[in-house]
Specification:
Helix content is 21%, strand content 29%. It has 8 helices and 19 strands.
């Protein structure tokens, strides 16, 4: 049952099985700044996080930056064509080395150079050169040149971050010993996405929106469609919602929606074409609307306990979009804007302090899974 805040701590743990109880995550986990600080380590510092699309850095030396929590990474393609990730921190005195470089505007560098003292690193992360002032002691009267220690390229290399891929999607984990491999975290979603020609598509559009709600509020909204009939009426006109299906795995869930009319394109997944939305814990989605030959992704990046940034990317065969592809993007943006209003309204209510803990409906088992994973991460 719903638990109102009457001055006592009325909240309980998220129910293990939604068929028996319907406890949602206690309201304070969507509003408390201490919870957000804890999430930086227990969620975003522990699991595999989407870093970006490999097609955006096709050539050796191409790179972009990606910030996860407070940690900024350089995602670069090395000379062997592999995509690697490093902390954007120089081994000398800890300076950030490259400026923020979005995936839509990648840079290219033969080597990575720190502008502070010009320590320079090869694309494999090893230290390749330093200025002459690090090779002799001409300004230090207490040290002879021959006693200056030679810098070991490996010991002074950039700190590499574990990375892995699902097709063209690059993921990283900031944890030295992550509790799961990417294969384990993605489960059957990995095989299904790798069976599609996702790598044949290029980034054509990016929209970045700052939304005034907790990232889990938006994640929960994305993960169910009980609200669709009342709030996305233009979109649901083309769908058979009564034939929809919610599939829940350990760390991902899939929302299937059948179209009233079949669509013939390369992204067909089944005999009868579906709109299909994948959510991979904790904050990445892949969206296939079934109305264009392409797909979209969301990064749901928290800014603080009451704000997140939605990075919506759209991939098509060509940068010049067809009318159908423009409609795909228009529909997606309309859905986002309708959802922004809904989730900001929910955050406003959660922040009032009136509610200690909400309850979930019988078809919100995907939201229940999101809340349960969050609670498990907090207790790790």
């Amino acid at each position: 049952m719903t638990r109102w805040n009457n001055g006592l701590d009325e909240a309980e743990r998220v129910s293990e099985d939604i068929t028996e109880e319907t406890n949602a995550l206690p309201a304070r986990y969507f509003t408390d700044p201490e919870v957000y600080e804890m999430e930086k380590e227990n969620v975003f510092g522990r699991y595999w996080i989407y870093a970006g699309h490999a097609n955006c850095i096709p050539d050796p030396g191409d790179y972009f930056t990606r910030t996860i929590g407070n940690r900024e990474l350089i995602v670069v393609r090395d000379r062997d064509g592999e995509v690697r990730a490093y902390y954007n921190v120089c081994a000398h005195r800890g300076s950030a080395m490259v400026e923020e470089t979005p995936m839509t505007e990648p840079e290219n560098a033969r080597r990575i150079r720190c502008p502070y003292h010009l320590w320079t690193y090869d694309l494999d992360g090893t230290l390749s050169s330093t200025p002459a002032s690090f090779e002799d002691a001409r300004l230090n009267p207490d040290l002879e040149d021959e006693n200056v220690a030679e810098l070991d390229p490996e010991r002074n290399a950039l700190l590499e971050v574990r990375s892995d891929r699902i097709g063209p999607f690059v993921f990283v984990t900031l944890h030295e010993e992550p509790p799961l491999s990417l294969d384990e975290q993605a489960g059957a979603m990995k095989d299904e996405l790798e069976g599609l020609p996702l790598g044949d598509y290029q980034l054509a559009r990016r929209y970045v929106s700052e939304v005034e709600c907790n990232w889990k509020v938006f994640g929960g909204n994305y993960s169910e469609c009980d609200h669709c009939q009342a709030n996305h009426q233009d979109w649901v006109e083309g769908l058979e919602l009564v034939d929809s299906e919610l599939e829940v795995d350990d760390y991902h869930w899939v929302l299937h929606y059948k179209h009233k009319e079949d669509v013939d394109d390369e992204m067909r997944i089944h005999e009868e074409h579906e709109a299909k939305f994948y959510y991979l814990w904790p904050n990445f989605t892949v969206n296939m609307y079934g109305t264009a030959n392409g797909y979209g992704t969301y990064i749901i990046d928290p800014i603080d306990e009451s704000r997140f940034q939605l990075v919506a990317d759209y991939y098509f065969k060509e940068a010049e979009l067809t009318d159908e592809e423009e409609e795909f993007v228009r529909t997606s943006r309309q859905l986002q804007e309708e959802d922004f209003e809904l989730v900001e309204r929910q955050q406003h209510g959660l922040s009032s302090g009136a509610l200690a803990q909400a309850q979930l409906g019988p078809n919100e088992h995907t939201v229940h899974r999101l809340h349960l994973l969050a609670q498990e991460a907090y207790e790790a």
